[in-house]
Amino acid sequence: MPELPEVETVRNTLKTLIVGKEIRDIDVYYEKMIRNREVDEFKKALIGKKIIDIDRYGKYLIFNFEGTALISHLRMEGKYFFKDLDEKKEKHEHVIFYFTDGKTLRYNDTRKFGTMDLYDINDVYDKSPVSKIGYEPFEKEMTGKYLMDKLSKKSIAIKSALLDQTIIAGLGNIYVDEVLFLSKIHPTLKANSLELADYKRLVKNSVKVLNKAVKLGGSTIRSYTSSLGVTGRFQNELFVHTKQGDSCLVCNTEILKTKVNGRGTYYCPSCQKEL
């Protein structure tokens, strides 16, 4: 699944390819992806409009048009392909945007979990889905005290809490494992059992991990590969995620794998002690 760094990489790449282009036509082959509009209304709202900019919040891509915003969530397997008009449609291309210059942008999703919502450009951050997610780690509001207050009544595992996008936006399975390792916190500890200093480390290391991952173009691993010619390199920097059986780079203890609420979770039992 693409997480914040991968979505940011997609955003930056798409900006160089499609900002300024005008939509001539749209084909929708899987109507359920368009959530808050009828397909005809969706098309009418975007055809003839130019893409002014592309933003991102958490794991959401926000395509800004003239007066309208398209909010796209890639979910598990969603990818955008930039192709010539005459290239053959592939099986899993479910939405195709045709530009006036003969290029196309194609949304490909093997599992059909991705979503698209259309809103007035001034309402994006006040409407679902964006309004429902929490602050990103980079925002000034995301402090150790804020995180402690949000989690004070949650007895779920800290790993699960950090994956909750309504609490903190943008962290997914890969990066939560890395943040917990750097913070020396065991993934199964109850979220409300930590001290203020622990929450501060979590915020600090979330920023550190995500910034580095964005700089390196995200992670290219089995669960996510870019479709726009960008090869992520952060997978070469991982301490614990996917490292089951390897020796910890800090203490040489064997990295273990477990499941936390159904999610594959990697950790060092020495650096991240289960209190």
How would you characterize the overall build of this protein?
- This protein is α+β, with helices and mostly antiparallel strands and 275 residues long.
- It folds into 2 domains: 4-132, MutM-like, N-terminal (N-terminal domain of MutM-like DNA repair proteins); 144-267, Helicase, Ruva Protein, domain 3 (Orthogonal Bundle).
- It has 6 helices and 10 strands.
- It has helices at residues 4-18, 39-46, 144-151, 158-163, 173-182, 196-215; strands spanning 23-28, 53-57, 60-64, 68-73, 79-84, 93-99, 103-108, 115-120, 256-260, 263-267.
- The strands form 3 sheets. It has a 4-stranded antiparallel beta sheet, with helices on one face. A 4-stranded antiparallel beta sheet has the order 2-3-4-8, covered by helices on one side. It has a two-stranded antiparallel ribbon with strand order 9-10.
- β6 (93-99) and β7 (103-108) form a beta hairpin.
- α1 (4-18) packs parallel to α6 (196-215) and α5 crosses α6.
- It is elongated.
- The two termini are 31 Å apart.
- Mean pLDDT is 92; it is low at 221-225.
Low-confidence stretches: 221-225
- Provide a count of the helices: 6
Quote the CATH topology of the largest domain.
Answer: N-terminal domain of MutM-like DNA repair proteins
User: Can you tell me the overall shape?
Assistant: elongated
Whole-number count of domains: 2
C-alpha termini separation: 31 Å
- What is the total tally of β strands? 10
**Strand order of the main beta sheet, please?**
1-6-7-5
Helix content: 10-25%
Order of helices and strands: HEHEEEEEEEHHHHEE
Task: Give the C-level CATH assignment of the largest domain.
Answer: Alpha Beta
Q: Rg, please?
A: 20 Å
Please report which band the strand proportion falls in: under 5%, 5-15%, 15-25%, 25-35%, 35-45% or over 45%. 15-25%
Largest sheet: 4 strands, antiparallel
**Which structural category do the helix and sheet elements fall into?**
alpha+beta
Per CATH, the architecture of the largest domain is Alpha-Beta Barrel
Q: What do the pLDDT scores average to?
A: 92
